[in-house]
Amino acid sequence: MAYLWGLILLVIGVGCWLLWAGRAKWRTTGLPSGEVVYSDTDQWEEQEKPLVSRRYGLVGRPDYLVRILEKGETIPVPVEVKSRRRPAEPYASHILQLATYCLLVEDVMKVRPPYGLLRYADATLRIPFSDDLRAQVLTAAESIRAARKANDLARDHQDPTRCRNCGYRRACGPEALFS
Ligand code: SF4
């Protein structure tokens, strides 16, 4: 159980890191913008259980899986639903979260999805699960794992509001910007 919680915390950590890193560096990431596609939500199956990959130390639950037929093979494709309208460019954090689900499907279901679907309130984007994107997910997961093992971490921002609302403030000592 403790191991599972560790995995869950790792995925939450990956998400936070991606949100922070992704927004600031969008233009330099080379991440795909995605292609708008028609999506028939009748075909979507809700994914109830988390997908757990011990190999990559990841766990996550896409909102849906949709089965596509490609070259005579049925392939599960993860779908991540966002309630907001489609941004001008999808956030890097959204893309990398979806790509993490693609990697989980690949490892757990032993078939690699060619893409994932990002469903916004007003559009659905198809995001190719390229080798490059796959490598970025692995790098992000490795960075989070390394950070979790480190004894001491320096603060990486100058935002007192984040510290004021942070659950680790008491343990953080002099790094905290709000006491
Ligand atoms: S209190 Fe510490 S851990 Fe929390 S946001 Fe501030 S620097 Fe980061």
Identify the notable features of this structure and list them briefly:
179 residues, 8 strands, single chain, 41% helix, 6-stranded mixed β-sheet, 21% strand, two-stranded antiparallel ribbon, binds iron/sulfur cluster, alpha+beta
Q: Report mean pLDDT, rounded to a whole number.
A: 81
How many helical elements? 6
The quaternary state of the protein chains shown equals single chain
Q: List unreliable stretches of 5+ residues.
A: none
User: Structural class, please?
Assistant: alpha+beta
The kinds of small molecule bound in this structure are: iron/sulfur cluster
**Spatial gap, N to C terminus:** 34 Å
Strand order of the largest sheet: 1-8-7-6-5-2
Précis, in short:
The protein has 179 residues and is α+β, with helices and mostly antiparallel strands. The chain is built from six helices and eight strands.
SSE layout and pairing:
Elements: H1 2-24, H2 26-29, E1 35-36, E2 44-46, E3 51-53, E4 58-60, E5 64-70, E6 73-81, H3 92-109, E7 115-119, E8 124-128, H4 131-149, H5 160-164, H6 169-172
Parallel strand pairs: 6-7
Antiparallel strand pairs: 1-8, 2-5, 3-4, 5-6, 7-8
Helix pairs in contact: 1-3, 1-4, 3-4
The structure holds iron/sulfur cluster (SF4).
Q: Would you write up a description of this structure?
A:
The strands form two sheets. The protein has a six-stranded mixed beta sheet. The chain has a two-stranded antiparallel ribbon with strand order 3-4. The longest helix is centred in the first third of the chain and has 23 residues, at 2-24. The two termini are 34 Å apart. It has one domain. 41% of the residues lie in helices and 21% in strands. The chain is globular, with a radius of gyration of 18 Å. It is built from six helices and eight strands, in the order H-H-E-E-E-E-E-E-H-E-E-H-H-H. The model has no long low-confidence stretch (mean pLDDT 81). By secondary structure, the chain is an alpha+beta fold. Bound molecules: iron/sulfur cluster.
